[in-house]
Amino acid sequence: MVKNRKLSRAISDLGWRQFQTLLEGKAEKYGRDLRVISRWEPTSQICSSCGFKGGKLDLSIREWECLNCGSKHDRDENAAINILVAGGQSETKNGHGGKHKTTAKVAAACEMSTHRGATA
Q1: How many CB atoms lie within 10 A of CB 100?
Q2: Is residue 70 a contact partner of residue 103, using CB atoms and an 8 Å limit?
Q3: CB 30 within 8 A of CB 41
Q4: What is the number of structural domains in the chain?
Q5: In this structure, are residues 82 and 41 in contact, taking their beta carbons and an 8 Å threshold?
Q6: 49 lies in a domain?
Q7: Which residues constitute the domain of residue 2?
Q8: How buried is 94 (Cβ within 10 angstroms: 0-12 exposed, 13-18 middle, 19+ buried)?
Q9: Residue 64: helix, strand or coil by DSSP?
Q10: Would you say the pTM of this structure is higher than 0.85?
Q11: Of these four, 17, 18, 79, 118, which has the most CB atoms within 10 Å of its CB?
Q12: Residue 22 counted as domain residue
């Protein structure tokens, strides 16, 4: 079966589909969010700082510098950040590296306290 290129590809695709189905079941069971990005997303070719697409790189190149912004990237770390962004998450926990998000109620209370201080 492996010698037949089309059949081996179909078996491989079926295996990955079964793996994805198992992951979806586990994510639902434990209340997690599973997001799948395109398999053709060029995550190691895009600068995670500015979004510039540098083009195809040889696999032997492990570190590269963005031609647009000049930031230096490790190929794997850059790809991991781009995968997070493609999955709909920011590269940091709240965009500023904090541990929690500010809720609307807290933001409104802070805004009210600053207005009171200005009028008093």
Answers
A1: 8
A2: no
A3: no
A4: 1
A5: yes
A6: no
A7: 1-34
A8: exposed
A9: strand
A10: no
A11: 79
A12: yes
In the numeric block, the tokens 């009028």 are attached to 119
Q: Where are the beta strands (DSSP E) in the chain?
A: 63-65, 72-74
Cα 8 to Cα 39: distance, rounded to the nearest angstrom: 18
Residue 95 amino acid letter: G
**What percent of the chain stands above pLDDT 90?**
32
If you search the block for the tokens 């790809």, which residue do you land on? 79
Which tokens in the block code for residue 57? 């790189």
pLDDT tens, position by position, 21-63:
999 999 999 999 888 888 888 999 999 989 999 888 898 999 9
Q: Supply the mean pLDDT for the chain.
A: 78
Tokens of 22: 């198992």
- Given a contact cutoff of 8 angstroms between Cβ atoms, the answer to whether 72 and 53 are in contact is no
Q: How far apart are CA 79 and CA 67, in angstroms?
A: 17
For residue 90, being part of any structural domain is answered with no
30 in a domain, yes or no? yes
Question: What is d(CA 115, CA 108) in angstroms, rounded to the nearest whole number?
Answer: 11
**Token pair of 96 as six digits:** 């500023």
For residue 50, CA distances in Å to 2, 40, 42 come to 42, 20, 15
